[in-house]
Automatic annotation (TrEMBL):
Localization, UniProt: Cytoplasm
Subunit organization: Monomer.
Keyword Mitochondrion: no
Gene this chain is encoded by: pth
PANTHER family: PEPTIDYL-TRNA HYDROLASE (PTHR17224)
Protein's organism: Aquella oligotrophica
Site (Discriminates between blocked and unblocked aminoacyl-tRNA): 11
Recorded superkingdom: Bacteria
Molecular function GO labels: peptidyl-tRNA hydrolase activity; tRNA binding
Assigned keywords, A-Z: Cytoplasm, Hydrolase, RNA-binding, tRNA-binding
Protein name, UniProt field: Peptidyl-tRNA hydrolase
Similarity remark: Belongs to the PTH family.
Catalytic activity: an N-acyl-L-alpha-aminoacyl-tRNA + H2O = an N-acyl-L-amino acid + a tRNA + H(+)
């Protein structure tokens, strides 16, 4: 089995472009550039979509334009139409539980309170892969909303970008579902 759909989570609009919550969009944009893909707004999938063939298989990149809390609507629309199973999907998102610079792959499991993951879980279940990009935690759960919707300080952004570059270095392994090989690179400092 190979990954057929990479979903980068974020919020649409210039006001959210550089916020921590858009780390998934940052990854998706760089992956599209690396693979020579271009995003187009696709209304029927409620998002920006890029498509290519890789080793004879269709590969879709998706950036939902529904805002974070409704990300599942976009994921379900595209995955249902193209008959992509949850096991063939990897969702890339910001992770409060990891400091900037940490990036890990996980299969299924809880959503950690992430509203985008909650909505995806609701519509397709939990049996998909996640690429979790550490953004750090504000230290107070009451400050989380403001924290994720603001830009990281420069040192944190450098670490987040470094983690994304590390993930891009194992693109071939991730897309081939060779998660053990990808984890060996990503889960070490």
């Amino acid at each position: 089995m190979v990954i057929k759909l990479v979903v980068g989570l974020g919020n649409p609009g210039r006001e959210y472009e550089d916020t921590r919550h858009n780390a998934g969009f940052w990854y998706a944009d760089l992956l599209a550039k690396k693979l020579g893909m271009r995003f187009n707004l696709e209304g029927k999938y409620f998002g920006e979509v890029a498509k290519t063939k890789l080793d004879g298989n269709d590969l879709f990149l998706l950036k939902p334009q529904t805002y974070m809390n409704l990300s599942g609507k976009s994921v379900q629309a595209l995955s249902s139409f193209f008959k992509i199973s949850p096991e063939e999907i990897i969702v890339v998102h910001d992770e409060l539980d990891f400091k900037p610079g940490v990036i890990k792959i996980k299969h299924a499991g809880g959503n950690g309170g992430h509203n985008g993951l909650k909505d995806i879980d609701r519509v397709i279940g939990k049996n998909y892969w996640r690429l979790r990009i550490g953004i750090g935690h504000p230290g107070d759960s009451n400050k989380v909303a403001g924290y994720v919707l603001n830009s990281p300080v420069i040192d944190d952004r450098i670490e987040i970008d470094r983690a994304i570059d590390k993930a891009l270095s194992v693109t071939k392994q991730i897309l081939a579902s060779d998660f053990t090989a990808a984890q060996r690179v990503l889960h070490t400092n």
